[in-house]
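Page 42, continued from yesterday. The earlier attempt failed because a stray header line got pasted into the input along with the sequence. Redoing it now with the clean sequence only.
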Amino acid sequence: MRYRPAKSDKDHRWHIVLDTTPFYPEGGGQIGDQGTLIDASGHQIRILDTRKEHALIYHEVDQLPTPLDQPVKAIVDAERRAETARHHSATHLLHAALRQVLGPHVQQKGSLVAPDHLRFDFSHPQRLTQNEMIQIEALVNSKIREDIPLEEDREVPFAKAISMGATALFGEKYGERVRVIAFDPNFSIELCGGTHVPRTGTIGFFKIINQSAVGAGIRRIVAKAGQAAELWVRNLWEENEQARSILATTDTLTKAITDLIQSKKSLEKQLDQLRKTQADLLESALRQQVQQIGDVPVLITELPLLDPATVKNLIFRMGKKLGGILIFGHKGYNRKAHLWMYVDKQLTERISAAEVIRLIARHIRGGGGGQPFFATAGGKYPEGIHDALKEGSSITTERLTANSHT
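This time it went through. Structure tokens are written below.
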């Protein structure tokens, strides 16, 4: 047995090399095995990962066996290995299905095989259509149901393997002799060193989760097989049932959601109309509060609770009609405070909305800014609205009076 500290030993991890090992190292996209070592003292040591370097297989552990010169018992996590094998064999079937449905231009450009999912990158110029996805998934599942036996040939000369029609995988380096894996040589035959199921039926079930683009002309499919696929579908079904329960419907979820969206649109139209009516009525009432400072109409007031978009529309509409200065404030939802200030552009040399807002925003324990003709502020102290408007009124009166005297 040989060992060394892991390159990153902050977790006190070690790499162990055994004389012989049943653990499969990471390679060909398949992640490495995990499991347990039992040392001569009976202590169980977790194998966190298995990798290969310079033809040596090393095992990552977070403690060393004792003593180091005695044999250890190596136990692979069999269930994890089996689920990984299902996903690896499913990857081969997926590759073959992609080439059959999309065309021979499809070439593998990368992969990841794990116990709970697979990721497959391949050359294709465009996003797969829903119909293509359905065909690919259906073809893989049909091959699973055929229960095709694994055909494995070891130590095949590389040139012969290629002449047999075997697909060499992206990024792999091959020696003079290779291992050939086939699930019906007329459907899937590839060069591979990974773990596989004895028959496709062992995979159980295959489900595509999503597709995406990872580069120019490169697509990615993420899928699940075996128990992971079953669990994913079960969770999806439970979410569907929960949604149907929340919506209190016996219709299909699609119909229920469509009806809900239509209802939402209708309510939004009604709400917009109510907001417009509310703003019209409020504008009429606010006009009674307008005061004159010199020749400038001024309106400084606290508004009832309105949505910000309605306030902004209201202050601009009134500002343009009055041609003066307006400062609005209100106490928003969740204990938020808001301030708005509008200044007619002909008055911005006398008073700046951005400057005044910054000064009075301290009362609501917030900040704000904007332009000389329009500025806003938000804060977390709604009780300060009254003082903010009071100071805004004082500043406005002072600036307009001072300018009128000059």
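Notes: The chain has a mean pLDDT of 91.
Reminder to self: strip header lines before submitting.
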